[in-house]
């Protein structure tokens, strides 16, 4: 079964603001509790609307694209199956089986013909060219095999056991193998951080505008997977002006309170097998975190303001290339090569220190 959502209906339904969920949102959002309750009410409203505008249908072939003879053969097969079920005589069952074999063989021919036609017509400028290339390179879906537990090497068979097994492996990889060298220093730093965060901000960040939120919504990629809240980017793109204005109020309340809602920190974690690693070992999977789309919009708002502040104060060193616009790590590697080459010309030695994270996630 696949779920089909009528996104035009979603857009129309979201324009209705007199709903039980939205009526729970306070008129003025100021405190962190009001922020959390508003996000919860908005999330419930969106999920309810999308659910009402969705339906489940069986996954099947689009018969409108099939040749006429294949369609006629499928109809005859289905009629023969119904007749054999209603009147299960030897003749009817034999005829139904024969038509099943003919229909299966014809569908195999149709698929081969479609593939041959695609290979003859496709070119690098064709819309489906890179999709086909990616599909041919990928292994397709492979189910996760039973995982070996440690230390008894027993097998995790069902999905819950596999999830716990991978979670334990990730926790082990992220835990410190050695105790901190200076606990007193770390405690002092933590106290300083708590003290700094308790103070009112010296410089107010620029408030969020509706135009800024509209641009963020426009730039969202519709095919990205949703986070734990189940709100897809397609649903966010259906927001009317009233809900966009509500988002602006929520974002500004978060900025004013120096607050990042905990619900936007929660993620759905999926284990992706590492290439070339044995798939029956928990350590062979790297985690991918699916975060809330609304939370990622707020992250971009914070990132823009923090970047503007850091660059205006000259706090970013020229040597930093990661996470900077118009900069990339290959450029920095090229600079290193040029620096070494220049050293060869001037008969100078170049010394470099490299760090390798063996358990990089």
Any overview of this molecule?
The protein has 361 residues and is mainly α. Among the domains are: 2-59 and 204-313, no CATH class; 68-141, no CATH class. 53% of the residues lie in helices and 7% in strands. It is built from 13 helices and six strands.
State the main characteristics.
361 residues, mainly alpha, two-stranded antiparallel sheet, 13 helices, 6 strands, 7% strand
In spatial order, strands of the major sheet run 1-2
Estimate the global geometry from the Cα principal axes: extended
What does the largest sheet look like?
Answer: 2 strands, antiparallel
Overall structural class, as computed from helix and strand content, comes to mainly alpha
Helix-residue proportion: 40-55%
List SSEs in N-to-C order.
EHHHEHHHEEHHHHHEEHH
Radius of gyration: 29 Å
- Low-pLDDT parts are none
Beta-strand percent range: 5-15%
Oligomeric state of this protein? single chain
Number of helices: 13
**Mean pLDDT across residues:** 86
Termini gap:
34 Å
Number of strands: 6
């Amino acid at each position: 079964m696949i779920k089909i959502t009528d996104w035009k209906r979603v857009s129309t339904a979201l324009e209705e603001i007199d709903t039980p969920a939205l009526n729970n949102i306070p008129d003025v959002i100021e405190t962190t509790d009001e922020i959390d309750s508003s996000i919860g009410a908005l999330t419930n409203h969106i999920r309810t609307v999308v659910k009402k505008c969705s339906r489940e249908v069986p996954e099947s072939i689009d018969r409108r694209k099939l040749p006429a003879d294949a369609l006629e053969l499928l109809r005859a097969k289905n009629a023969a199956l119904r007749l054999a079920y209603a009147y299960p005589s030897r003749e009817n069952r034999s005829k139904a089986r024969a038509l099943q074999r003919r229909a299966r063989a014809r569908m195999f021919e149709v698929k081969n013909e479609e593939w041959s036609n695609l290979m003859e017509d496709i070119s690098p400028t064709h819309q489906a060219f890179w999709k086909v290339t990616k599909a041919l390179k990928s292994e397709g879906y492979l189910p996760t095999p039973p995982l070996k537990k440690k230390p008894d090497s027993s097998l995790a068979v069902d999905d819950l056991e596999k999830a716990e097994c991978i979670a334990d492996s990730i926790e082990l990889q992220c835990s410190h193998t050695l105790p901190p060298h200076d606990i007193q220093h770390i405690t002092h730093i933590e106290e300083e951080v708590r003290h700094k965060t308790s103070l009112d901000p010296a410089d107010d960040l620029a408030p969020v505008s509706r135009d800024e939120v509209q641009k963020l919504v426009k730039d969202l990629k519709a095919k990205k997977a949703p986070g734990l809240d189940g709100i897809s980017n397609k649903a966010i793109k259906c927001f009317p002006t009233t809900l966009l204005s509500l988002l602006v109020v929520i974002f500004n309340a978060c900025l004013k309170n120096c607050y990042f809602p905990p619900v936007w920190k929660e993620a759905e974690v999926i284990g992706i097998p590492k290439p070339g690693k044995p798939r029956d070992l928990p350590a062979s999977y790297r985690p991918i975190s699916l975060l809330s789309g609304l939370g990622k919009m707020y992250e971009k708002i914070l990132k823009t303001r923090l970047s503007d502040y850091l660059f205006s104060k000259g706090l970013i060193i020229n040597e930093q290339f990661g996470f900077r616009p118009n900069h990339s790590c290959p450029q920095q590697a090229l600079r290193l090569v040029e620096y070494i080459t220049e050293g060869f010309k001037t008969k100078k030695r170049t010394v470099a220190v490299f760090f390798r994270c063996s358990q990089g996630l």
